[in-house]
Design a protein that fits this description.
The complex is a heterodimer. Chain A contains 12 helices and 13 strands. By secondary structure, chain A is of the alpha/beta class. In chain A, strands 7-8-9-3-10-11-13-12 form an 8-stranded mixed β-sheet, with helices on both faces. In chain A, β4 and β5 form a beta hairpin. In chain A, 47% of the residues are buried. In chain B, α4 (126-139) packs across α6 (158-170). Chain B is built from 12 helices and 12 strands. Chain B is of the alpha/beta class. Classes of the chains: A alpha/beta, B alpha/beta. The A-B interface holds A 50-51, 161, 163-164, 191-197, 199-200, 203, 218, 220-222, 224-225, 245, 248, 258-272, 274, 276, 278-280, 282-283 and B 43-44, 157, 159-160, 187-193, 195-196, 214-218, 220-221, 240-241, 244-245, 254-256, 258-263, 265, 267, 269-274, 276-277.
Chain lengths: 332, 333
């Protein structure tokens, strides 16, 4: 798997949202700042972090649902966006190849469209169906593929449960036969028993159709389960990136470590023995992030250097990247 | 053995909606002693919140208690009037709601909202109440309490607001604290802070806690006893170790298997519970879990299973266990 080429590459991706003020005083929410990573063909890259860390924005900016304010996006060897070279290609042909499944299955389906039309909309836009019968057949086979049946095509979203709606969202993404899907917290709104059904379905679809995923979630256990590699974000920056097992077992960044230790383990004996690293305070505002390392205000190892210099995101082991000045101290 | 603080027997509660009678609780029974920490787990709509709300009389119209008895701290809840409820709410029993963003009043300062509870339930003067409010904020780990008292909820972060909610809930030193998904809306690092705080406070104040959550991880670290709910029934009840290491109801087993393990080295496939949760408007005649159960038998579809006692602290409602007891020549029906 590791020999395979990169399907998606982003370099120095930046997304600042204007947040009031004029001229010199204009302020920006620095949602994503200088994020670089690559996703290999056929793999699942997980992206975790707390709310407001920019993981959803990264996913959406990657698809250019938000126009990036800096950096480059390369998809399958073709440059989709480059701020410096002023390249911004027409996305329509790429929308067929890159799709997204949204977080909230209650808000992401148009209540006035039938399930069939929701799934078929992509087919219409990209003119994939030869005639009405073909369109109908395709919709039915998509619904069946995600565990729904043909009767469901004429119903409306409100008639479905959360888990079923999420399946519709997945069928919609699959309609155009994509190669790459951004899964933006697809299971966060679901109950645990349903969550497992949907996670298994994502895995089956990947095996059958050779899909590549960017799997965004705040639940590290789910991300660990489904991903080959995991990236951890904090306040708009990627702080650590490694193979899933490596990241959980041998994390080097202090934030990743506290994140892992903060997860409540569903095993009473381990839970009683576990020593939690409880971080103090809250995540600072992305309007005015701390200078230097953005994690320094909550980091137990922070010193003057952390305030002055932005730590470089560098390779610390084979395929293991992290951004921290004090990696030597963090290691046990 | 400490004194019994809560005793619920065969509680049945329904919501009378235009679509019909939604049977939210179908004969729920359990008891709690002073100082116990009980976790109630289950999926959305399983009745876990309703159980707790009914202790506070918060299930007003269209909800109605249609059967059973509830005793709390010497009061018979099922016969209490709204006026009597007002005396115990926030005083003997209080609650922390799920969403700290919407459960504080946006137009009053934090201080006002804490003082209100204290003035309502105690004989303290205004000055004493404000001093107590400041103490409470310190207790829940909010720095600069003087300044915070004058702030409005929107000026605080989610974690801070949840701390304020806890301060309000603790204002009158309740006997029982109900925490309804207190950390679900919070990020993991903030969740860890709040759970730590709740454990500290429990040690300091010695109150009983009912922790309602869908997160098995949270109950594993916080609770001593666990009630697993499904479709308005407690399907299994036991100590934390019994539930996690010796689950006997198929639903409990399913729940435990369906969560991904963080420390697993090998990638294992998740074992989901197939099907969808029951429709409480038309609950099945027998065991509510039967339609989704892998080991469903004929009897499961027609008759609700009786209680099977597995130990002094552990019981479940499942025909499979009844069958085993019977084969062992036990006391089963």
């Amino acid at each position: 798997m590791s020999e395979q080429k990169n399907l998606v590459e982003v370099k120095h991706l930046q997304q600042y949202f204007p947040a009031g003020g004029f001229g010199k005083n204009k302020r920006y929410v620095q949602a994503v700042d200088d994020v670089s990573f690559a996703i290999r063909k056929g793999e699942t890259l997980g992206l975790v972090g707390e709310s407001g860390c920019g993981k959803t924005t990264t996913g959406r900016t990657l698809l250019r649902l938000y126009e990036p304010t800096g950096g480059t996006i390369v998809y399958d060897g073709e440059v989709l966006f480059d701020k410096e070279q002023k390249i911004a290609v027409d996305m329509l042909p790429y929308r067929r190849r890159m799709q997204i499944v949204f977080q909230d299955p209650y808000a992401s389906l148009d209540p006035r469209m039938t399930i069939g039309d929701i799934v078929g909309e992509g087919l219409d836009i990209h003119k994939l169906a030869e005639n009405d019968k073909d369109r109908h057949d395709r919709i039915i086979s998509l619904l069946e593929r995600v565990g729904l049946n043909s009767e469901h095509a004429n119903r409306y979203p409100h008639e479905f449960s959360g888990g079923q709606r999420q399946r519709v969202g997945i069928a919609r993404a699959l309609a155009v036969d994509p190669e790459f899907i951004v899964c933006d917290e697809p299971v966060s709104a679901l109950d645990v028993s349903i969550q497992a059904q949907v996670v298994n379905m994502f895995e089956d679809l990947q095996a059958e159709m050779g899909l590549t995923y960017l799997f965004i979630a705040h639940d590290l256990s789910v991300v660990k389960h489904i991903s080959n590699r995991i990236g951890v974000m904090y306040l708009g920056k990627l702080v650590e990136l490694a193979d899933s097992y490596e990241l959980i077992a041998h994390s080097v960044h202090p934030y990743t470590r506290s994140l892992i230790s903060a997860i409540p383990v569903a095993d009473p004996k381990t839970a009683r023995q576990a020593k939690r690293i409880v971080l103090q305070g809250d995540v600072p505002s992305p309007l005015n992030p701390p200078s230097g390392c953005r994690f320094r205000t909550r980091c137990p190892y922070a010193d003057e250097r952390c305030a002055a210099e932005v730590p470089e995101f560098k390779e610390v082991g084979p395929g293991h990247w992290a951004a921290c000045h004090h990696l030597d101290k963090v290691a046990d | 053995m400490s004194e019994k603080i809560l005793d619920i027997q065969q509680e049945r509660l329904s919501f009378f909606t235009p679509a019909g009678e939604v049977k939210a609780l179908n004969g729920v029974s359990f008891a709690m002693n002073q100082g116990d920490v009980l976790g109630i787990v289950g999926e959305s709509g399983s009745g876990k919140s309703v159980t707790a709300y009914s202790i506070m009389g918060l299930t007003a119209y269209p909800g109605k208690l249609v059967g059973g008895k509830v005793w709390f701290n010497g009061h018979q809840i099922d016969e209490m009037s709204e006026k009597e409820f007002r005396k115990i709410r926030g005083n003997e029993v209080s609650i922390i709601f799920q969403d700290p963003m919407t459960s504080l009043n946006p137009v009053y300062t934090i201080g006002n909202q804490i003082v209100e509870v204290i003035l309502l339930h105690t004989q303290k003067t205004k000055k004493e109440a404000w001093a107590r409010a400041k103490e409470l904020l310190e207790l829940v780990g909010i720095n600069e309490p003087e300044r915070r008292l004058k702030q409005y909820p929107h000026e605080l972060s989610g974690g801070m607001r949840q701390r304020v909610m806890i301060a309000i809930a603790l204002a009158c030193e309740p006997k029982l604290l109900i925490a309804d998904e207190p950390t679900t809306a919070l990020d993991v690092t903030i969740q860890a802070q709040i759970l730590e705080l709740m454990q500290d406070l429990r040690k300091k104040l010695g109150m009983s806690i009912i922790m309602i959550t869908h997160d098995l991880g949270v109950v594993a670290s916080m609770c001593e006893k666990i009630a697993v709910m499904y479709a308005g029934h407690i399907v299994e009840y036991g100590t934390t170790d019994e539930i996690f290491y010796n689950p006997q109801h198929e639903y409990t087993k399913g729940l435990i298997n369906s969560i991904p393990k963080l420390n697993a080295e090998e990638k294992e496939r998740l074992v989901p519970i197939e099907g969808t949760p029951v429709d409480l408007l038309n609950p099945p005649a027998g065991c509510p879990f039967a339609p989704r159960c892998k080991s469903c038998m004929k009897v499961c579809l027609s008759k609700m299973p009786p209680r099977t006692e597995l130990s002094d602290t552990h019981y479940t409602y499942c025909w499979l266990r009844q069958k085993e007891e019977f084969e062992k020549g036990g006391k089963a029906e």
